[in-house]
Inverse folding.
């Protein structure tokens, strides 16, 4: 049996997870927030107005405690405080790259008996005309793409909507980026810093579609965080049966991690391809709700030296995407410790990109950002896991000493 056949397509995600006793209101839908207020005795006729007020405090002003909510009665504030928090994921570490990219390691609330606290990473990438936040959808990823560091993580669980929205809140907190911040909160510039969201952090968003959908509805709310669906891109490794639903229920932009032009190679790079091969994936793209020349699908293609980067591959890529309103993103491979792949030579990337360009596609080569802080694509892996890898090594070393 080949190595490929023995690599399982996916791992199993954890289902046992104990939420914190006092939940955060961050990430609740307006309807859920109204229900929560109902539970505190707010009469139905008042709920809509109260939701509106609280929503504004949380998402426009960046409130982190109920006592600042001066438009809400003291009595209700006290009740809110007894039963809920406005907590975001806790920042364990913040790293700032020489190019301005910032990476946060975030600890999630709640716990799983016998497991360490769960952590995810979130990355902010500033550019001249925009600021992109790369958001995680899972702790780790159940899929095992062979070139991706996140895929090697053992522990996997789906994030809740609050934990997904919470990443945007953390970024706005740290960047001082709320639209109308409270006096003790920095920021308030007329221009927002976080303008775009890409669901390209840890995890496969289409394996957590319901929570991602609910979270993005909060993020896109025009009276709150206000990041429009056209500025939100969801990236998938190709979970074909969920692609149409993402279009219908979320309505965001779509990116496909293609990386290979034939099934044989894609099976190796993205084992999920054994379940949903390229032809099925591209058929789903052709039918993606709302796809048009002004709403193109982005195809991501990681440049792996000697693996998928030949001139023939480039020509085949162009042929394959014919008829699909597409953009092509060539991503230089970001190496990580222990990987067997290398990034294509610059010259080869240019040759490849020229063919794609000549075929009529703008083919920006995504400059790797935040390499010095391991913040680039596929390098996100939580410290928890790194620690346990280190511990495993230490254990192995101890075992060796013992056996001597
Ligand atoms: N699971 C989703 C989204 C997260 S991965 C997906 O696979 O699309 C985000 C992007 O980073 C994907 O295109 C992924 O293929 C790419 N990527 C993963 N590891 C990488 C690496 N080491 N170098 C460059 N890009 C990588
Ligand atoms: Fe998961 Fe995406 Fe990494 Fe594949 S590339 S292992 S789907 S995060």
């Amino acid at each position: 049996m080949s190595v490929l056949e023995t690599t399982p397509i996916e791992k199993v995600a954890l289902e046992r997870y104990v939420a914190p006793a006092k939940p955060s209101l961050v990430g609740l839908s307006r309807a859920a927030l109204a229900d929560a207020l109902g539970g505190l005795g707010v009469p139905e006729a008042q709920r809509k107005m109260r939701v509106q007020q609280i929503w504004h405090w949380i998402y426009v002003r960046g409130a982190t405690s109920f006592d600042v909510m001066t438009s809400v009665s003291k009595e209700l504030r006290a009740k809110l405080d007894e039963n809920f928090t406005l907590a975001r994921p806790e920042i364990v570490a913040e790293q700032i790259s020489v190019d301005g990219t910032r990476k946060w390691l975030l600890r999630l609330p709640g716990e799983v008996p016998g497991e360490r606290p769960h952590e995810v990473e979130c990355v902010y990438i500033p550019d001249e005309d925009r600021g992109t936040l790369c958001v995680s959808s899972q702790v780790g990823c159940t899929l095992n793409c062979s070139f991706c560091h996140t895929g090697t993580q053992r522990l996997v669980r789906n994030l809740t909507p609050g934990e997904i929205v919470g990443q945007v809140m953390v970024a706005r907190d740290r960047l001082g980026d709320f639209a109308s911040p409270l006096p003790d909160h920095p920021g308030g510039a007329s221009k927002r810093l976080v303008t775009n969201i890409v669901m390209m952090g840890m995890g496969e968003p289409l394996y957590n579609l319901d929570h991602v959908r609910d979270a993005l509805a909060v993020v896109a709310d025009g009276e709150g965080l206000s990041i429009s669906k056209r500025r939100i891109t969801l990236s998938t490794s190709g979970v074909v049966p969920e692609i149409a639903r993402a279009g219908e229920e979320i309505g965001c932009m779509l990116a496909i991690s293609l990386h290979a032009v034939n099934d044989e190679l894609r099976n190796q790079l993205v084992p999920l391809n054994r379940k949903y091969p390229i032809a099925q994936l591209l058929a789903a793209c052709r039918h993606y709700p709302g796809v048009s020349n002004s709403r193109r699908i982005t195809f991501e293609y990681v440049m792996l030296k000697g693996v998928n980067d030949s001139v023939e591959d480039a020509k085949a890529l162009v042929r394959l995407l014919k008829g699909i309103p597409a953009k092509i993103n060539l991503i230089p491979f970001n190496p990580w410790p222990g990987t067997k792949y290398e990034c294509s030579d610059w010259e080869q990337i240019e040759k490849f990109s020229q063919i794609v360009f000549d075929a009529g596609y703008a083919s920006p080569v995504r400059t790797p950002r935040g390499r010095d802080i391991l913040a680039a694509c596929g390098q996100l892996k939580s410290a928890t896991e790194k620690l346990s890898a280190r511990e495993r090594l230490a254990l192995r070393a101890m075992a060796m000493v013992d056996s001597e």
